[in-house]
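Progress report, Aim 2. The chain analyzed during this reporting quarter is listed below.
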Amino acid sequence: MRWLIGGAAAIAGGLVVRRLLGAGGRGSDQWQRAQARRREARWHVATVNRPAGDVAPGGRFPEPLAGLGDAVEVQVRPAAGGRGTEIAVRLRDGARLPVAAAARRVTGRDPEQAIRAALRESKQLIETSEVLHPDYPPTTEPTPMNKPLRVATAQGRREGRL
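Predicted structure tokens for the chain:
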């Protein structure tokens, strides 16, 4: 049994060394292209069930998107199959360090979180004329038993999903 485990470890170690030094290693073009794609800003897209004229009347976006200012790029285009309008948003400067991005995300200062929240709130404003909050007004007294639900709801509001 030991020789089987040792053999599997040797094969795995060889694959790692081959990956790093040989084909697909850090010096390869494929690896460099993959790293460049990771640094590009990601498009966040929401489909709004309204015509394009209602999304940005007079060229003005709803306040949550307008509040992001020149830090983001916004595109408006017809949704597939004529089913409303797509709003796509991304950061203008996409190069971010992964460690710094992780730290900002934990503290709630990640610009991607702000984009998701602004896009979600703008969609609600365009479709219903108000922003709906799942945790307001609270329907129960804060207790130790419902604490996990309150934490999850607060996180979902910030992240856009539970």
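The beta strands are 44-48, 72-78, 85-91. The helical segments are 2-21, 29-39, 52-55, 63-66, 98-107, 111-128, 147-159. These observations will guide the mutagenesis work planned for the next reporting period.
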